Predict the structure.
Amino acid sequence: MIKLYIEENPNLTINKDKIKSLLNEVGNVEIVAATKYISEDAMKDLYNAGITSFGENRVEPFIRKHQNLKGLGARWHFIGHLQRNKAKKIINDIDVLHSLDSIELAKIINNKRETPLDCYIELKLVDNPLKDGVLEKDLDQFINEIRTNYPKINIIGLMAMTEPDMTDNEKKALFKRVVEIGHHYNLSKFSMGMSEDYMDAISSGSTCIRLGRILFNM
């Protein structure tokens, strides 16, 4: 598997032909470009090519890029773990949070956010203490508490990530399980799938895919 880049690469260029093909291929599924390693110029090129949703996973680069690209019209997603001590710095500048994973974070959002924020709950299907997310066994209580006590949070769906050592069949099973769980809670949006498995995610019910390296000339 090709890694994108360790550091931001100002010379990275977009693959216009691939992006055009992807937009036709995925239909109404939202493509969120993982922009961690690309410059503002490359993000402008993405936008002009039809990828209008950007996903950052670090607070400081998000602040810089959001400021420099004001007026572009992009939809801003935060797709990484949002540290509670940094959340207030960006919480009113993001359109979608993909990683709501604790009541403590929900409290900060509810206190600092000016308008309701669309949030995916990060679902953790494997009880791994090194991974962030809400376990399935805790999800019922978590959703009920958010819906009852935190009006500035609009739960729109579930986000889930596969493990690097999973087989294709294991990934498909995970995607399908996430959709089943979401439907149980009357949720219809699912943030699942990346460059290597986005079609399996879509066929399983994903409505939002997070793509990185596949969008660029590498």
Q: What stands out?
A: Helices lie at 16-26, 40-49, 59-68, 87-90, 103-112, 136-149, 168-184, 198-204.
